[in-house]
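INTERNAL AUDIT FORM
Audit reference: QA-55
Scope: verify that the stored structure record matches its stored sequence.
Auditor: D.O.
Record contents follow.
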Amino acid sequence: MQRKFLFLLASLLLLPWRLAGADAVSPLAEAVEYDTHDGYFVSNRFEAEAVTSFAVLKDQASFDQVFGVAMVMRDKSHRLPAGAFDRKIVVTAIHRGKAMVTYKVDGVVAEGGTLVVRYATQVKPDATAEFACPLIISVAKADYQAVRFLENGKQVKRLEVVAKLVRPADKTKQVPLH
């Protein structure tokens, strides 16, 4: 009788998490220290026709294929330090179109071998200009097999991380990394 009660209690406690599906973060997830970076523009050679792009970048050469340094006077941008890829990887989400998109990171956690990035976006439409707005996050290197992007509470992308290749789970386009 006591076993049935404990099983029922455990099932009820886990029910909300199971009902939430892919958009939920496991209650057992561990917080991951992260840093956000700015002061970069998105290369017009990186998936230029895509409305959104997602990538995991493991080295400086891959980062340089996606981003360039945006220089302005009295620049106070928070860029990656020299040698950052010795200890870190970068995960990025990019929105393109006739709107300025800003990001607020709600948190980064590890669920086993999956890195989960939770963030909110704010969109300001502009009929006269085109934008490519990146979210750039660095985290310590670890043995991640996948990265999930949860935007405004909904999963928008899952990338499988395989050796030096990032492969979107929906098998659309592969982004080679060096």
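Auditor finding: record pair retrieved intact. The first helix runs from residue 2 to 20.
Action required: none
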